[in-house]
Design a protein that fits this description.
Length: about 375
């Protein structure tokens, strides 16, 4: 509801950027307007203030919000809330991306320039694969939402269509963008993988992260802002985050594993959000020992003050990531048309994992045991 109440701010931000629809701020308060400062107060080594670009160009936030809205709707089955509030968020952010996508006539594809993906070590890149692929997914989901509204709730479809100026031409453009959005890939010798953004492999200089261990400082502090931009070291889960959100929609196990092997060695975990997401994905890829090590790393950020900043407060979002690593990773929770299902892959020394989630208002008990003699259970 916070996001719904702040749609006016997202629409104002889209207009300021010369776009339509709703473009959510990177940071906002009760006004719904962008509150990210454009310049850092501190000076860099050259005595210059650093420009902060996240408020301008970390635009994947709008798709992240639509993803969360759709997750809430599908888990709760709260059609009334979705009709009154959620659908408008999903559709108006789709209007934004429909106006933001750039047609490259020479290549016959849509692109997105000047973006910042989850990896905030690299700013203003062209064709962030996370942003491009999630934009295509977002528009596909918006088309599905529109089809559902038109078939089951025509009055609501008419209301939103008039308010958001959604017509046949706009829907056709969404289909075109979803089909023709460029998803960057690169052949790295052992097979094709996603390219995190245009020029990631050709332009960035490899950095041997092991040469900087052990440490508590993040690599952008050690290298400096300018050198970090030129180095093949990433702040946090980017392609791996895409794998967490869309999973096998992206490709088969071999393709996902190649992407893991490409990006895991160059991640700095410069954000506390990163280790838990890597634990989630590693467990789904069958890399259980690595997943457990990352799970412990995520827990130790606060318990052992790995970032050296617990005096400022705990990393609450990282704690949420730990829960996700257990439930979506080690338990393998997925929501299917028939309800929640689990596909456990537990660390060898774990005896049992049990958790209760809610699906359509009903508590569902999820339980898995390490012993092969005891099967995983989903109990209403």
């Amino acid at each position: 509801m916070y996001r719904y109440h702040n749609l006016h701010g997202a629409r104002e931000k889209a207009r300021e950027a010369g776009c339509e629809g709703a473009m959510y701020p990177w940071e906002s308060t009760d006004t719904g307007l962008e509150t990210t400062p454009r310049w850092a107060n501190e000076l860099n080594a050259q005595g210059e203030r650093i420009r902060i670009w996240t408020g301008d160009n970390e635009q994947h936030i709008s798709t992240d919000i639509a993803y969360a809205v759709l997750q809430y709707w599908r888990w709760t089955g709260d059609d009334r809330w979705f009709l009154d509030y959620g659908a408008e968020i999903v559709l108006d952010t789709a209007v934004f991306y429909g106006s933001r996508a750039e047609w490259n006539a020479d290549a016959g594809r849509y692109e997105l320039s000047m973006q910042i993906g989850p990896d905030e070590y690299h700013e203003n890149v062209d064709n962030s694969v996370f942003t491009n692929r999630m934009t295509a997914w977002h528009l596909e989901q918006a088309l599905n939402v529109w089809a559902w509204l038109s078939a089951d709730h025509p009055d609501e479809a008419r209301r939103l269509g008039e308010a958001l100026q959604i017509d046949a031409a706009r829907l056709d453009k969404w289909r075109d963008i979803a089909t023709k959005m460029w998803i960057p890939t690169s052949d790295q010798g052992d097979g094709v993988v996603f390219e995190q953004f245009e020029g990631f492999f050709d332009r960035l200089k490899p950095i041997p992260l092991h040469d900087f261990s052990p440490r508590t400082a993040n690599m952008d502090w050690l290298l400096g802002h300018a050198k970090t931009q030129e180095s093949r070291v990433i702040k946090q889960a980017d392609v791996v985050m895409l794998m967490a959100l869309l999973g096998d929609q992206l490709g088969d196990r071999a393709f996902l594993r190649r992407n893991w092997e490409t990006y895991y060695p160059v991640v700095d975990h410069g954000s506390s959000l990163s280790p838990s997401i890597h634990a989630w994905v590693a467990s789904r890829l069958g890399l259980i020992e690595t997943a457990y090590e990352l799970f412990v790393y995520a827990a130790a950020i606060d318990l052992e003050d790995r970032k050296g900043n617990v005096h400022d407060g705990i990393h609450a979002a990282s704690a949420g990531g730990l829960w996700q690593a257990v439930v979506f990773g080690f338990l393998g929770l997925k929501l299917t048309d028939s309800g929640p299902q689990i596909h456990p892959a537990l660390p060898s020394h774990w005896r049992r994992v049990a958790v209760t989630v809610r699906w359509r208002g009903r508590p569902i008990r999820l339980e898995a045991h390490a012993s092969a003699a005891e099967s995983a259970r989903v109990q209403p």
